Amino acid sequence: MTDDPAVLITRDDVDPAVAVLTLNRPARYNALTTELKTDLLAAVEDLGKAEDVRALVLTGAGKAFCVGQDLGEHAEALRVDPSTAFDTVTEHYNPIVAELADMDFPVVAAINGPCVGAGLGFALACDLRIAAAGLKFSTAFTGIGLTADSGLSASLAHAVGVARATELLLLGEPFTAEDAQAWGLVRAVVPPEEVVPAAMELARRLAAGPTKAYAEVKRGIRLGAVSALPDVLAAEGAAQARLATTSDHADAVEAFLAKRRPTFRGR
């Protein structure tokens, strides 16, 4: 452990409704120790409950986004007791991914450098992604005799299709930010120094939008990816009924009729 916090939480100076969550082990490319995972889970849980947050940016300190599990710590856990070495999946990885995916506001991943293993799982749990030009992604799991975790078995297949996801997970071959953009994994590829500013600009745009509608969009997409059409139609109808009672919807309809831009307040 060091004196530096394993994660940093800040607010945007331009729009305090935008929170920034930074993985903070730059010397180790933000490899995931128990300390970092524990602090990250606590941070996403707290931010998810914050009533004044309307968008979140997730990024990494230094030259990497996140290279996945710290294998030094993992090797020690295997030496102690292999039967408990993967308790971290249920204790840390699964709830972190679930919290990121279930946020009631949009989450933008600012992928500033290498993004590997669970780091890729965290990035795909976000709603939108901005990546640094030339950076490398990798699933990496089979290279150390493992299968995917952190939701990648589903999120990668949903993002790029079953055939490509199978290839990426079986072979573990690196792919670039430019590949990721061509496959639809990332929204934009920008120079490394522009990744966080571009993500912040996108997050500010989202924070000024209809937050409750965004939450329903996220729920609808997750349901639609795994459910039959009748269930999706029923869920959409229920969601529209909930949104019908929001002031954002009522005000936006009046703004349309008055030929002015709506102002969304997340209510």
Describe this structure in words.
- It is a single chain.
- With 267 residues, this protein is α/β, with parallel strands linked by helices.
- The chain has eleven helices and nine strands.
- Helix 4 (118-125) packs across helix 5, helix 5 (152-160) crosses helix 6 and helix 9 (211-224) runs antiparallel to helix 10 (229-243).
- The chain starts with 6 loop residues before the first strand and ends in a 10-residue tail after the last helix.
- 39% of the residues are buried.
- The model has no long low-confidence stretch (mean pLDDT 96).
Q: Any chance you could write out the topology, listing elements then pairs?
A:
Elements lengths: L6 E5 L6 E6 L10 H16 L5 E6 L10 H10 L6 H16 L4 E5 L3 E2 L1 H8 L2 E5 L3 E3 L13 H9 L1 H10 L3 E2 H6 L5 E3 L4 H13 L3 H14 L4 H15 L3 H11 L10
Parallel strand pairs: 2-3, 3-4, 4-6, 5-7, 6-9
Antiparallel strand pairs: 1-2, 7-8
Helix pairs in contact: 1-3, 3-4, 4-5, 5-6, 9-10
Structural class based on helices, strands and sheet pairing: alpha/beta
Number of helices: 11
Cα-to-Cα separation, first versus last residue: 42 Å
Percent of residues in β-strands? 5-15%
Overall, the morphology is globular
Helicity range = 40-55%
Descriptive terms for the model:
267 residues, 6-stranded mixed beta sheet, 3-stranded mixed beta sheet, 48% helix
